[in-house]
Amino acid sequence: xxxRTNLIPEAPxxxxxxxxxxxxxxxxxxxxxxxxxxxxxxxxxSVLGICPLYLDEIKHFLSLCxxxxxxxxQEGRLVAFIIGSLWDEERLTQESLTLHRPGGHTVHLxxxxxxxxxxxxxxxxxxxxxYLYHLGSQPAVRRAVLMCEDALVPFYQSLGFHLxxxxxITLGSLTFTELQCFMRGHISLRRNSGC
Length: 195
Fold this sequence. Notes:
With 195 residues, the protein is α+β, with helices and mostly antiparallel strands. It has helices spanning 33-48, 55-64, 123-136, 153-157, and strands at 23-26, 69-74, 77-87, 106-114, 143-148, 162-171, 174-182. A seven-stranded mixed beta sheet has the order 1-2-3-4-5-7-6, sandwiched between helices. Strand 2 and strand 3 form a beta hairpin.
């Protein structure tokens, strides 16, 4: 006369099921490239008519320097990302758009994009703080640089970036401003970033 509990099925609410983490930050891989490109294309084509990086360039950077990327996943879905590469000159040039220079001490932030359904929720700011924290854990990285349209300058300044001046890079009639953030200004960031 033993208990025969194995004959009684568990109620569905009591079954253990695999769940994805509600929110996860991790470095991107080439396998993430299609999701990255979908978000980027939607974010930039409608506004600028161009993408900072196209699919083959995304795969290129995620193969060469995945540690300089960061994706924000919610329930397994990519909702925002940043892609960077190393650069070894004081200012950005046309070459900086496509090259990764492993000996460099500057990270060129190519793109920050947030999925359209998650915009206006502060995710871009939070991701950038996480990214700067991540960069601060990499001893070779001394600063981060980016180029943006004038309308975005206040956003990046609120995150610790400082004006460098007009960017030498233009895309058609589009002009950009170059900004930088020194990692020594983020000493408290130099801890384990989790990527």
